[in-house]
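Aim 2, interim progress: modelling of the zinc ion-bound target.
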Amino acid sequence: MAKTQKTKTAKMADADKKYYDLLMRARDEITGRMQVRLEGALNSDNLDKRGVTTHMADVSSDSARNEFELQLLSKDGDVLKMIEHALERLAEGEYGYCMDCDQRIAEARLEYRPYAMYCTACKSIREKNNGRNPHAE
Ligand SMILES: [Zn+2]
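Predicted structure of the complex, ligand included:
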């Protein structure tokens, strides 16, 4: 019975399975980190209430740190969206191809950054053009 059963997971190629695992791990890591950052930001707001003496210098460095944390949080949010997107593409069998030039993204790059949407060449073009790729438009 199990022999003839062909589920989507069973059909998933070994490579896809590997990237699926990498993506899930990256997602866990990021959601965990966002949780910690969020708690950190909330806690430092409550320093006064917890009876910790706050000098002006501490307050300003605290709010600067909060801002930094919030920036990181929104960056993590972007990465999270990219991970979700990569998971969708994996399900559609389009995973691992550059969104701009349709070339296969190098394996080493995907292992390092499983949610990469562009090959290194297109990525660097985008970095030089404020996130746009004139060749792909
Ligand atoms: Zn490309």
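The pocket of zinc ion is lined by residues 98, 100-101, 103, 118-119, 121-122 (CB under 6 Å). Residues 56-91 form the longest helix (36 residues).
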